[in-house]
Amino acid sequence: xxxxxxxxxxxxxxxxxxxxxxxxxxxxxxxxxxxxxxxxxxxxxxxxxxxxxxxxxxxxxxxxxxxxxxxxxxxxxxxxxxxxxxxxxxxxxxxxxxxxxxxxxxxxxxxxxxxxxxxxxxxxxxxxxxxxxxxxxxxxxxxxxxxxxxxxxxxxxxxxxxxxxxxxxxxxx
Amino acid sequence: xxxxxxxxxxxxxxxxxxxxxxxxxxxxxxxxxxxxxxxxxxxxxxxxxxxxxxxxxxxxxxxxxxxxxxxxxxxxxxxxxxxxxxxxxxxxxxxxxxxxxxxxxxxxxxxxxxxxxxxxxxxxxxxxxxxxxxxxxxxxxxxxxxxxxxxxxxxxxxxxxxxxxxxxxxxxxxxxxxxxxxxxxxxxxxxxxxxxxxxxxxxxxxxxxxxxxxxxxxxxxxxxxxxxxxxxxxxxxxxxxxxxxxxxxxxxxxxxxxxxxxxxxxxxxxxxxxxxxxxxxxxxxxxxxxxxxxxxxxxxxxxxxxxxxxxxxxxxxxxxxxxxxxxxxxxxxxxxxxxxxxxxxxxxxxxxxxxxxxxxxxxxxxxxxxxxxxxxxxxxxxxxxxxxxxxxxxxxxxxxxxxxxxxxxxxxxxxxxxxxxxxxxx
Amino acid sequence: xxxxxxxxxxxxxxxxxxxxxxxxxxxxxxxxxxxxxxxxxxxxxxxxxxxxxxxxxxxxxxxxxxxxxxxxxxxxxxxxxxxxxxxxxxxxxxxxxxxxxxxxxxxxxxxxxxxxxxxxxxxxxxxxxxxxxxxxxxxxxxxxxxxxxxxxxxxxxxxx
Lengths: 173, 426, 160
Hints:
Chain A is an alpha/beta fold. Chain A has a single domain, classed as Beta Polymerase, domain 2, CATH 3.30.460. Helix content of chain A is about 20%, strand content about 25%. Chain C has about 160 residues and is mainly alpha-helical. Chain C has a single domain (about 30-150), classed as Rossmann fold, CATH 3.40.50.12280. A 3-stranded parallel β-sheet of chain C has the order 1-2-3. In chain C, helix 2 packs antiparallel against helix 6 (about 135-150) and helix 3 (about 40-45) crosses helix 6 (about 135-150). Chain C is elongated, with a radius of gyration of 18 Å. Chains in contact: A-B, A-C, B-C. The interface between A and C is medium-sized, with 17 and 16 residues.
């Protein structure tokens, strides 16, 4: 078995300007990369001997509203050979966030990307079937965004019982 | 649901009227034969006795053979991740229970581990032991419900009654420690909500003395039962390569022979100090996944036995002494002004976590359960995301396994993957 | 040999039609096998060995709404599920009853957000609300008993 190699050094060496930043926090390595080259980066981490991050655990979309670049995507990779994790992060603009899909690299990226699209409205180019996954297909907006309201309804207490009762749309037979 | 003219209807092209998407969405998901009426499209769920909740599957059938299977989830999407952003860190624990309702302690655990990692908060040894013990009891609880419903789906009614009988004992222990049967919210950042009561250890001991014989009993009913073998062996096969590519974890992955258990690979809560084996399958079929879970229950009993021994020897605090994150004990409130201030701060504003992001994963009964927690320095989570095993299994493993199987075997496949829709949709 | 021969002379009981029908309805009320979320697990516990709902003539859970009298809405109802739930209710034959089991089904519970319907009574008329998150099996049984009491007070005049 090939000895484990350092993902940061190797990425800087091979991917050069695709690597924008490296963050170490609480023992976790985050490599910030160029969103347009994400497919190349993912293929590199999956196929290079000594890294072999063959398992995509999760894709998380984060909304840093009102900061710009507003959106971030975290790809959590796992190497079953060397039992270690790596986070690849890309930042996307708030206006029309899009980037290439990594479904060609990992099949499991399919539904993770659909979830990111449904919840955050991030568009993945080249995704086989990018449609809503959790919300109804005719839903408006992307609920996980920070500027989307939580949808707070007035809570019924004893002091406003009648008022809420009057407004509540009770079902008919 | 309202009927919408969605699909060009050619010949007998099935009833796709309930599909909520457009024709373009269905292209690529089902084979072109579905549009000519050669194959039939059938809607299974969301109300179906064997989909374990509100899962909906759009099946394309050639006779009784499943050609393709398109899962449609979201019927239980609760907005938990969004709702947690509106709560303080400690309030949000109650939400995690309701996510995977067969594994409430595990959900608490992964969220608390994320907070502890971000805050660099210590957890005393006693709390760690109790956490391991209860996490394994939860695994038994979850596997018992899985066993019962899986057998019920395949026509073995009595196993359901037996499994639920033993489950009540586990629930009694949960109720003893937390006051709630299912939604315990017992793990808190830095330790536990309160120490375990004195009756706890005798109750757990009684359970682990009683339970292994019961697992044997289920095994005599099922393991060599020719009917059971006919319904499960060689059904829903997934190769190790496919299992990894489709993101399978837990017993679903181990059924294909891939030795990966997070308790062994990336230990948390001191799992590396416990002696236990990880059962592995070899064929990747329904029977292997069933057999692995049966063995896992025995292994959990083994871990619990070791944990009880340690718990008897280990005293000390049940939660961290770091007053910045953990409330002071009630007895201190009468004596110390500082304790009153901490108490007041923690129960009104809550604690704040340093800015940053962490990713923690544990082995839930279903597979890898991970929590991504991002903090902006405030007293509420900036973003919480759960990587839930059921979500990945529902979208990936079930369609993959279903392809080419008979429609009657689909029930066995869904049962063997052990999905919980609350876990899937969050 | 018939029943009378085995049991002896059972005699004659006189009662009103109303009482006889209502008695029949309460003693064989078939719930629909329809679980949504956490409460469904407690509903299963209620069915299973320890709590044994069949003591009340309810062991027969029907998966088809066409054959069931009682809908136990066990769990949170999402906006995506709401039309499905209403359709299931419409498919049930009269007389039909609804128990809203748990806080989430009754009022939204702790999930006051975009995805959850704030109370299933916005979709279907509810007869009995059962509190708890999730309710213990005893609480559900109490809810069912309460529904039985309600059924017993039904009048023939109201059926028409």
